[in-house]
Amino acid sequence: MSTDPDRSQRRKARTRSALVAAARHLFAAQGMESTTIAQIADLADVAVGSFYNHFETKDELLAALVHETLGEQLARLQSRQAKVEDVAEKVSIAHRHLVELAQLESDWAWMLVRLEVPHRVINLSLGAAASEDLESGLESGRFQVADARVALQASGGALRGVIHALLLGELGPDAGSAHAEGVLRSFGLDPEQAAEIAARPLPPSE
Q1: pLDDT tens column, 52-99
Q2: CA–CA dist 99, 159 (Å, integer)
């Protein structure tokens, strides 16, 4: 009796999704180094051998997890950015979107903090998009920084710090706007203008 190829593919997709979801939870809870492949397989309710049918190593699983998670969030924040023209507001929206997400999804936020994702993804989609926004602002004269790479790293590090403080209960609900204002000021906007832009309502998320 032959196996239905579509059913087999659906089963493989479900197993892969379960492994990614389990890794996301465990990496967020205890960090990647403290998480074993056996723990991931156990939480996903699959045999350890099934892990190796989809990923060769934890690093490969991490790459898939980061790509899928941040790719989805990039699409959402860019849909918000598409509703405005000013590159400064686009940067504000991006940072506030990610802070808002951290307030809503603690697993995602802890993963970002514990895995130092902002530094790992500089050459991936989210980091590349942030770099494009900064370069656009520099080319138009909207932003002025001494070194674009340093400014990008600094803003990513500040984002990670704000998210960590939120998770620890050290910051209030307006942390996103305050953080965005700080990033815009570090990119060369005057304080009054940075504050006004960071306080604008966020476009709806689609």
Answers
A1: 999 999 888 887 887 777 777 788 889 999 999 999 999 999 999 999
A2: 8
CA-CA distance, 191 to 102, in Å (whole number)?
26
Query: Which of residues 158 and 31 earns the better pLDDT score?
Result: 158
HEC letters along 3-44: CCHHHHHHHHHHHHHHHHHHHHHHHHHHCCCCCCHHHHHHHH
Q: Which residue has the tokens 């023209």?
A: 85
Task: Please give the class, per CATH, of domain 65-198.
Answer: mainly alpha
Residue 56 identity: E
Q: In angstroms, rounded to a whole number, what is the distance separating the alpha carbons of residues 18 and 14?
A: 6
- The ranges of the chain annotated as CATH 1.10.10.60 are 1-56
Question: CA dist 181 to 121, 124, 164, Å?
Answer: 23, 25, 18
Structure tokens at 73: 């969030």
Q: b/e for 126-144, b at 16 or more Cβ within 10 A?
A: bbebbbebbeebbeeebbe
Cβ neighbours, 10 Å, residue 155: 24
The architecture CATH gives domain 1-56: Orthogonal Bundle (1.10)
For the chain, give every residue range classified as CATH 1.10.357.10.
Answer: 65-198
Provide the total of helices (H) and of strands (E) in the chain, helices listed first. Answer: 11, 0
Structure tokens at 5: 């190829």
